[in-house]
Specification:
With 202 residues, this protein is mostly helical. It has ten helices and no strands. Helix 2 crosses helix 4 and helix 7 (132-144) packs antiparallel against helix 8 (150-160).
Length: 202
């Protein structure tokens, strides 16, 4: 059955997927930290999922506590490197890692799905196709095109939406500060909201 889509909901989801994809792609710049500190985040009270609401609330609390955006951007750059880059990263935020075949068949599968769905990797994303930032950017694109192709996001979520809960749990356990756990909860909450409303089996 073709899912029903709400253009306003899809637009909001696209913006939030873009936020999560950007946050996992690179550490925030001073300008982005300042924008978030100045109140660019959505109201957690309107989130239709407890995880998403908790993530947005944690981001607001973090943003309210920022006293020096430049200093906070430097701190987040250090944490981003420790968590996701290394030389010995604490976490591998790839679907294939969580599937137990790091950079193997799951990476090839998501690449094939991008081709089948006509999704071109964003030019500013240098990560592998199964990296959290790239898959969240794909969900942003699929949200933007939901009105014309509502089944595409259903297919993508059914194949690739089941690892974001585990990712969020690992980020919460490993991160030093509140920013990245909040981002991970937003990402997992977004996927949960989409899977529930589109009736995607988990």
């Amino acid at each position: 059955m073709t899912p029903t889509t709400d253009p306003d909901a899809e637009s909001t989801l696209a913006q939030l997927y873009d936020f999560a994809a950007t946050a996992f792609a690179d550490p925030p710049t001073e300008a982005w930290v300042r924008t978030l500190h100045d109140g660019a985040l959505p109201d957690p009270a309107v989130a239709p999922d407890d995880r998403l609401a908790a993530g947005l609330e944690a981001l607001r609390t973090w943003a309210d506590g920022v006293e020096d955006p430049a200093e906070e951007a430097d701190r987040l750059a250090t944490e981003y490197t420790r968590l996701f880059v290394g030389p010995r990263p604490q976490l591998q935020i790839h679907e294939s890692w969580y599937a137990g075949d790091f950079l193997g068949e799951p990476l090839a599968a998501v690449s094939r799905d991008y081709d089948a769905l006509g999704i071109e990797p964003a030019a500013d994303l240098k990560e592998e196709a199964d990296h959290a930032a790239v898959e969240l950017a794909a969900l942003r694109e699929l949200s933007n095109r939901a009105a014309s192709d509502p089944d595409a996001k259903v297919r993508f979520l059914a194949a690739h939406g089941d690892w974001f809960d585990a990712l969020a749990a690992d980020v919460r356990e490993t991160a030093d500060g509140p920013f990245y756990p909040a981002v991970a909860d937003v990402a997992a909450g977004l996927v949960a909201v989409d899977m529930d409303r589109l009736e995607v089996d988990r």
